[in-house]
Design goal:
By secondary structure, the chain is mainly alpha-helical. It is built from seven helices and no strands. Helix 1 packs antiparallel against helix 2 and helix 2 packs across helix 4. The longest helix has 21 residues. It is elongated, with a radius of gyration of 23 Å. 15% of the residues are buried.
């Protein structure tokens, strides 16, 4: 079977239902690049999906200067494909398992408002309900998405 056919099946039949459209596009992009690399270095066959191919894939991407977080995300998509293919018995085991994990750098902490920024924020004239949202954002440290999920019974 062709590796490109396996990728197509994975994108349709894999456990990808319910993922965001952007995530699905990222998986497809990552896997299409893997197929292209396999075709250049070996052949478009499922037997070409080896740890050596995946190493070459990441060496190629690292040479382009991609961020560690991007490489980590790409490893996750290739790993998911590898697990799926092993369950389908396209290869004996997932070749990505033999490779070291790519550690994402820690996310930077948000910086606090300066006193001037805080004063300007609280000097704004807002309707009562927006004052409540501003207070929750500032004093409770809630994110906008967390405030958006609040219900009256939560308060």
């Amino acid at each position: 079977m062709k590796l490109s056919t396996a990728v197509d099946k994975f994108l349709v039949d894999g456990r990808l239902r319910g993922l965001a459209r952007e995530t699905l596009q990222a998986y497809e992009s990552d896997l299409r690049l893997l197929v292209s690399l396999a075709t250049v270095h070996d052949a478009d066959t499922v037997l070409a999906f080896t740890a050596d191919l995946v190493r070459t894939y990441f060496k190629t991407l690292s040479a382009k200067g991609l961020e560690m977080s991007t490489l980590s995300r790409r490893r996750a998509s290739i790993n998911e494909f590898g697990r799926w293919g092993a369950r389908q018995r396209y290869w004996e085991r997932n070749p990505v398992e033999d490779l070291p994990r790519i550690k994402k750098p820690p996310r930077p902490l948000p910086r606090p408002f300066t006193e001037e920024e805080r004063d300007r924020l609280f000097a704004l004239e807002l309707p009562q309900d927006e004052c409540l949202v501003r207070a929750l954002l500032y004093f409770a440290g809630l994110r906008v998405s967390e405030i958006g999920g609040l219900r009256l019974g939560d308060i």
